[in-house]
Amino acid sequence: MEAINVLPLLLISLFSTFLVAQSTDIITANQTLKDGDTIVSRGENFELGFFSPGGSRNRYLGIWYKKVSLQTVVWVANRDSPLHDLSGALKLSVNGSLSLFNGKNSLLWSSTSLKKIRVRNPIVQILDSGNLVVRNSGDDQDYIWQSLDYPGDMFLPEMKYGIDFVTGLNRFLTSWRSPDDPSIGNYTNKMDPNGVPQFFLKRNSVDVFRAGPWNGLRFTGMPHLKPNPIYRYEFVFTEKEVYYTYKLANPSVITRMQLNPNGALQRYTWVDSLQSWNFYLSAQMDSCDQYKLCGSYGSCNINESPACRCLKGFVAKFPEAYSAGDWSEGCVRRVKLECHRGEEDFLKISKLKLPDTRASWYDKSMDLNECKRVCLNNCSCSAYSHFDVRDGGSGCILWFGDLIDIREYNENGQDLYVRLASSEIETLQRGIDRVSSKKEEEDLEFPFLDLDLIAEATNGFSDENKLGQGGFGPVYKGTLACGQEIAVKRLSRTSKQGIEEFKNEIKLIAKLQHRNLVKILGSCVEDDERMLIYEYQPNKSLDSFIFDKERRRELDWPKRAEIIKGTARGLMYLHEDSRLRIIHRDLKASNVLLDSEMNPKISDFGLARTLGGDETEANTTKVVGTYGYMSPEYQIDGYFSLKSDVFSFGVLVLEIVSGRRNRGFCNQEHKLNLLGHAWRLYTEGKACELIDEAFKESCTDVSEVLRVIHIGLLCVQQDPKDRPNMSVVVLMLSSEMLLLDPKEPGFFNERNLLFSDTMSINLEIHTNNLQTVSVIEPR
Ligand SMILES: *[C@@H]1O[C@H](CO)[C@@H](O)[C@H](O)[C@H]1NC(C)=O
Ligand SMILES: *[C@@H]1O[C@H](CO)[C@@H](O)[C@H](O)[C@H]1NC(C)=O
Ligand SMILES: *[C@@H]1O[C@H](CO)[C@@H](O)[C@H](O)[C@H]1NC(C)=O
Ligand SMILES: *[C@@H]1O[C@H](CO)[C@@H](O)[C@H](O)[C@H]1NC(C)=O
Ligand SMILES: *[C@@H]1O[C@H](CO)[C@@H](O)[C@H](O)[C@H]1NC(C)=O
Ligand SMILES: *[C@@H]1O[C@H](CO)[C@@H](O)[C@H](O)[C@H]1NC(C)=O
Ligand SMILES: *[C@@H]1O[C@H](CO)[C@@H](O)[C@H](O)[C@H]1NC(C)=O
């Protein structure tokens, strides 16, 4: 038996060019590939050999990218049978089967072929697609065996991700246990052929996420999957097979879709200039993607609060539980169906992710009228829709039984026709008319309340009713005559804006709706008075917890992590999703309010905009903000951008983790502020010392907190260009994407502040800087 590339490991790095010249892409029968040997595909895209993942010492036979500097393994043979030494040997026998042996000649892994091909002179070859194939040496079409049929956690280009009905082969992804351990982890993403085929992401055997059926353009549960310059995707569904696949649009681009150990199904692309993998797309988008979150006949809308509602014509099975956020029991019909002809009809609901199709039936050619008729004639049929949405729609899907796992989208949703009692549809249609005319009225007349009314609700703006002093004026608690509790913000009279402009601006801002923004209920503009009326948040603001000796214990790590993520989503919405593209300019712990379930709600958003008039995106002559949260370029040069909010967010993150304020921070060992302290600990590898003792116990996974600290430091970097934008921050918080190393933070040494004259003057003026609006002239 002969071995290939028998150079000792040490020499490989010294003589790599020599090796490349010598390298081959095939192994022939009776040859052995030993640990230290590799074969490399012709274009040098992929390499097959033995490796150790992450920090592990175990050895595995696998395939990795040859051109990617970070070891990125795309396929592993002996996932569950590691080698514990360097004795591994891969052999191809004359009958075409590949076998991996250890030093004691025990079989660790072997290939099994479902194909009936006569084997003559077999060879193994590693291809530039990353596919490892066994074939007859004269035939490069028909493979005896190929690794793409037995994927691990990676969905590579040209793989047929799905089922071959002829051989029964189902190709699916299984996560690794951890980056150090390729053995079978807890997550699978697999095509389920029942009803209309769908991919299901499962944790062990529990459904976690459903991409939904293919509708001709995309999976109904992945509205963000769109034609793009990187890869071309295709879904094939015939009697013989059903699969999803993609090809690279540009063969030099390196991209992969991976099922991570934590269950995130994500696509990355390799960026050579950065030498890192860039996150590209995630199958799951947000918590509405959690399978069946809202229960049967419930629908999830991430922009609503709460996110779950019953479909029209349905009511919560247990109304109290449902409104308290326990949606598991779902919804039931308000009017029961008797299945009498003529007494039932269908209500069209638009912009949906179609319900689970495991209990469905389909016909690819039936038209929608026929579809409706068939559904109406079968009492257990609960809904129907088009099978394919292209060209105005074609085909028919019928659902039987409960409708499960529905959500609403802003774009790329689908129409679903839901069976309801005719009487119910009439009521609903009247209701819809009423609602829509009411909506129009609302648009015309956004509630502008009487000053008298507000004064009454707040006991004449009494001191007892004062909740605090916000960035733009005092805030009062009020109770309207109807019993509703409100928070009233009385704005300082700094605006030069006219009343009409102010009203228009407020109307626009009131349209911003997101679960992590405080909801504006109305406003009051009279004479010199300008007030905003908000939903009252019973749990006050974040600073009253994290900086309080006792109450800080009420916030454990999972809660804090949720608050950080929610705040990031709210800020991302302001920056990127809202039509207005708002820069907050005064994000801080006291502007993050907490609702009854401790969900974070950003307040004071948009105020900088209403009060600042035309200063929307560039230089300002007045700096509005709070010391400790302001970025250097803003505080010193008056230059603000989305990235100055990112800076404030980073400060907030470090405060939430440490339970210490950035401003006024003191440490006996140095004179740094919190940012400087965090940076110092981080560079010394002692970042875990930053963690607040109050929640350390509740934190089962310290690495998660360290990651959040790392993200916080990325946000407070000196140069705005280095700071990530909020969509990247949200991704970093919710995925395991690789993080760059942070550079030195801005203002990490508080004495820097004093370099600027104006700063020192203002420091004297504002003795209580922690909750002050600072309006100062820059140098
Ligand atoms: C491989 O080994 C077998 C058994 O020793 C022998 O019959 C066969 O000819 C060999 N094949 C090649 C390609 O060397
Ligand atoms: C092929 O040969 C190997 C080793 O000789 C043997 O273990 C295996 O069972 C054979 N496979 C088939 C399909 O005959
Ligand atoms: C997989 O799930 C089991 C059961 O929930 C759990 O005990 C185990 O720790 C999980 N393994 C990993 C690697 O997450
Ligand atoms: C209704 O459809 C279900 C599911 O396809 C089927 O089992 C049942 O026989 C149908 N009932 C009638 C009355 O056609
Ligand atoms: C938050 O407010 C709700 C409703 O007032 C209350 O029941 C809950 O105890 C508060 N949570 C904390 C942590 O104070
Ligand atoms: C802000 O002012 C600085 C200094 O005057 C100038 O360099 C910069 O281009 C200005 N930025 C914008 C967006 O106007
Ligand atoms: C955020 O940053 C990423 C990476 O730099 C970039 O690709 C993306 O376009 C940015 N998003 C916005 C909305 O600016």
In short:
The chain is α+β, with helices and mostly antiparallel strands. 22% of the residues lie in helices and 26% in strands. The protein folds into five domains: 149 residues, Agglutinin, subunit A, CATH 2.90.10.10; 124 residues, no CATH class; 150 residues, no CATH class; 85 residues, Phosphorylase Kinase, domain 1, CATH 3.30.200; 232 residues, Transferase(Phosphotransferase), domain 1 (Orthogonal Bundle), CATH 1.10.510.
Q: What features would you describe in this structure?
A:
The longest helix is centred in the middle third of the chain and has 23 residues, at 422-444. The chain has 5 domains: 1-149, Bulb-type lectin domain (Agglutinin, subunit A), CATH 2.90.10.10; 151-274, no CATH class; 288-437, no CATH class; 451-535, Phosphorylase Kinase, domain 1; 545-776, Transferase(Phosphotransferase), domain 1, CATH 1.10.510.10. A hairpin with an 8-residue loop joins β4 (46-51) and β5. Helices cover 22% and strands 26% of the residues. The chain has 17 helices and 40 strands. With 779 residues, it is of the alpha+beta class. It binds 2-acetamido-2-deoxy-beta-D-glucopyranose (NAG) (7 copies). One 2-acetamido-2-deoxy-beta-D-glucopyranose binds at residues 28-30, 94. Keywords: ATP-binding, Disulfide bond, EGF-like domain, Glycoprotein, Kinase, Nucleotide-binding, Phosphoprotein, Receptor, Serine/threonine-protein kinase, Signal, Transferase. Belongs to the protein kinase superfamily. Ser/Thr protein kinase family.
